[in-house]
Amino acid sequence: MLIAPRLKPAHPRLGELFAAAGIIPGELIEQSLSVAKSSRMPLGRVLVMSGHLTVRELDGALKVQQMRQQGRVGCEKSRELIQVVRAQGITIDEALSQQSWERAYAKPYNQLGKILLASDVVSERIIAEASARHAETGAALGRLLVEEYLLPKSMLVDALNALVLIRDGQLTRLEAVQALQKSVRLQRTLNDVLEIPCQSDPNKMRFGEILYAAGIVTQEQVLDALEESLERKTVLGSILSQGGHLPPRVVESTLQLQKMVEDGIIRSHKAIELLRLVVQLDEPLEDILTELERLRQVIKFLCASGVVSEEYLEEVSGAAVDLDESVVLDLYARGIIYPEMVTKGAHCLTLHHNGYLTVDQASQAVRIAVEKNIEPAQALREVNFNTSESEEKPAA
Q1: pLDDT tens, 145-165?
Q2: Which residues 6+ apart lie within 8 Å of 68 measured at CB?
Q3: pTM for the structure as a whole
Q4: Which of helix, strand or coil describes residue 1?
């Protein structure tokens, strides 16, 4: 009678993995196997209870064993992973992410390509082909991947944001890779995975966010420039200027407004409106701020004089006392105020401020000037105010 030989398992047992990695000597494995058999406990539990293994190391080895059975890793990779978990005191998932990044970092791709590859967002073949087209055409790698439907735009945004967080020291490479992997696995955004509030801090706006919110550049232009700025380790504004998307005045104004928001001087929505004015009027930010303050005072005077009804103002702003930049622009857009009216109001208000007219006289004059479409000087004569005398002698 022939006795069939005992077959060696197709996949390594747990003890063999530890011995091959040099984590636990073979003799100790044999002793622990005897204890496990007599106590009817799993080998891993015996090793943990005896202090030769941590729970983290056991969990890592069990996952490596599963990966070996699935054919996802070979002998050498198995040993490396178990050794990294022991040496660095990290989990197996962290070890996998770290090795993915190290492998990707050695590749000849740009920063975006490397983090996409390390996070298993797209395959290396796709990254390699897109990188070749990127080098040939100069088009941004992210744009190529999105336009060819190889990468969702939302994932491009997440990958670039992850690189920004790495650059700013808010995430390590390992943490960024793990977060992107988790976002893919759970089909959630990077902000959701990192538990970043949907509504950003009103006192913090990135350079590109202000420009995009103001409608000065498109999202595609911001993403392209951000990818290049991260690769060249330079500021976003410099890239956008070189690309012809922004004149120097807009770059300077955006930086000023960004600082004003951070310092709590203005809110983000006001910064956006001001930047729109810089572009529309093609004037320096300082001049616009000065002119807007003067314009607000004139409009308040026109409202107090009854030239502009509070009903109109409330319809636009929701509050008669709120006269920010968006309200001023809307009043102009609707034709509720117009340059000639403002000029007349400014003239009468100046006479009042200089002491030549009382506030009632100035209000009466501007009402007549606007209603009859005449000059303020003529309006003053109609109500028996001597303009020349008024301008020479302040009102009592």
Answers
A1: 999 999 999 999 999 999 999
A2: 11, 12, 17, 74, 78
A3: 0.65
A4: coil
